[in-house]
Amino acid sequence: MDSGYVKIAEKSEIPIGKMKKFVSHGKEILIANVNGNFYAICNVCTHERGDLSQGTLEGIIVTCPKHKSKFDVTSGKVVSGPKIVLFHPKIADEPSFSVKTENDDILIKI
Fold it and tell me: What is residue 106's predicted lDDT score, i.e. its pLDDT?
């Protein structure tokens, strides 16, 4: 195994089109399965700390359940900010993590 990568899950834990929260090294990490490819971003919304794993995943876009901010799970980039009437704060991109698979394991670089 390459240095710096840690096992976070098994492929079978996250079906295609689904996502799941894991905690590793004190960080909440969201793993998403997009067409059999796994991506990892921080699970805590950069707007008001919503739990992204409780949101929705459509294609590569995860929507925060709190105020509907949207992030690209492949990069962590903000797609659109929170949906709050007359208030449009700038929010930061989600940190992303390098992911690889070995056999049935999903590994991320912390």
Answer: 98
Domain 5-109 indexed as CATH 2.102.10.10: yes
**Segment 90-101 mean pLDDT:** 95
Q: Residue 53 contacts by C-beta under 8 Å, 6 or more apart in sequence?
A: 19, 20, 21, 30, 43
Instruction: State how far the Cα of 29 lies from the Cα of 24, in Å rounded to an integer.
Output: 7
Asked if residue 83 lies in contact with residue 63, where contact means CB atoms within 8 angstroms, the answer is no
In the block, residue with structure tokens 């919503």: 50
Report the alpha-carbon distance of residue 107 to residue 1 in Å, rounded: 9
Q: In terms of DSSP bridges, do strands 19-24 and 27-34 run parallel, antiparallel, or are they unpaired?
A: antiparallel
Q: What is the residue extent of each domain of the chain?
A: 5-109
Place of tokens 């949101």: 55
pLDDT of 82 reads 87
Model-level pTM? 0.92
How far is the C-alpha of 16 from the C-alpha of 33, rounded, in Å? 5
